[in-house]
Amino acid sequence: xxxxxxxxxxxxxxxxxxxxxxxxxxxxxxxxxxxxxxxxxxxxxxxxxxxxxxxxxxxxxxxxxxxxxxxxxxxxxxxxxxxxxxxxxxxxxxxxxxxxxxxxxxxxxxxxxxxxxxxxxxxxxxxxxxxxxxxxxxxxxxxxxxxxxxxxxxxxxxxxxxxxxxxxxxxxxxxxxxxxxxxxxxxxxxxxxxxxxxxxxxxxxxxxxxxxxxxxxxxxxxxxxxxxxxxxxxxxxxxxx
Length: 241
Description:
Blueprint: E1 4-5, E2 20-26, H1 33-39, H2 41-45, E3 49-54, H3 61-68, E4 71-74, H4 79-89, E5 94-97, E6 102-103, H5 106-117, E7 122-129, H6 134-150, E8 160-162, H7 163-168, H8 179-191, E9 195-203, H9 206-211, H10 213-228, H11 233-240
Parallel strand pairs: 2-3, 2-5, 3-4, 7-9
Antiparallel strand pairs: 1-4, 5-8, 6-9, 7-8
Helix pairs in contact: 1-3, 10-11
């Protein structure tokens, strides 16, 4: 399905193109999305834009998005496809991809804009999991350390990238899983290692809490290993879901 514009389009944009376009893929996130959009209001007041790309939600996500985003698109489902659709419409010279269940303090927005302003072509934020407990805190710390050491970022970490670098690697590969790992690999090879922003965005710990922290960690490690060994992303997606 081709992307279509929402009836409520660009209420907060000025005639000047924004420097940063925030792209949020969404699917049935009515409980989380309004909080993230409120977090991004300071960016919108500064003239940047927020785009929500809905992949066929059956809840109130599209309606809620229209109240707090500049543009709302509806596409077929698939996170990579949704993010590419949002990027295609974005007017910013840089793109910031956020999951709908993230929370973003103003300091994170400032740090991302600063990294881009310093000429860094791409990067990621540190992440903090929303739940309490030592194991979740340790998990987030290891995620941050791993991405700095390897130069590979995940979608939970809010990947940001200049338009030129994004276009140079062909955007997100439209695969059912590991699109974040693959675009990181391509960006690392094409334009260099990421900027590792220390300011931490908060991502929902529901995945770890529902499946169990250790079980989720082991699952993700095994999926990434299988991917690096050449496994079919479609088969990995079935294991993940």
